[in-house]
Amino acid sequence: MNRFLSGADSIFDYIKATAEPDGDGLRWRTYDYADEPHYHFNIFNGVGGIPLFLCAFYKARKNPEALTLAEGAVRWCMTAKPEADCYERGLQLGR
Fold first, then answer.
1. Which of 74, 55, 75 is CA-nearest to residue 65?
2. Which residue pairs, CB below 8 angstroms and at least 24 apart, start in 9-14?
3. Which pLDDT does position 80 carry in this prediction?
4. Mean pLDDT by 10 residues, the chain (95 residues)
5. Residue 81 gets which letter from DSSP?
6. What SS3 state is found at 71?
7. Would you call 87 exposed, middle or buried from its count of C-beta atoms within 10 A (0-12, 13-18, 19+)?
């Protein structure tokens, strides 16, 4: 088996196991630059980057559960309340 796909399988298993239902979506506790846990919608250290992995994983593995998790993450990001230092729009710091 391809070692990269094995690694992706392990990451997918972790993402699936740590998903937290919240409202109409799914979220994950991630860590900010100060290594503090948080729930945030940004792409680089929040929930927003997780659906990118999940869609690529689906493309490689054809696992429909990956798309279900990705959709839940996107729904959560769309409804998450921005913090005072975040913009309402934008790919990295916005929704």
1. 55
2. 9/61, 11/53, 11/57, 12/54, 12/57, 12/61, 12/63, 12/66
3. 85
4. 89 98 95 91 90 97 98 93 63 55
5. P
6. helix
7. exposed
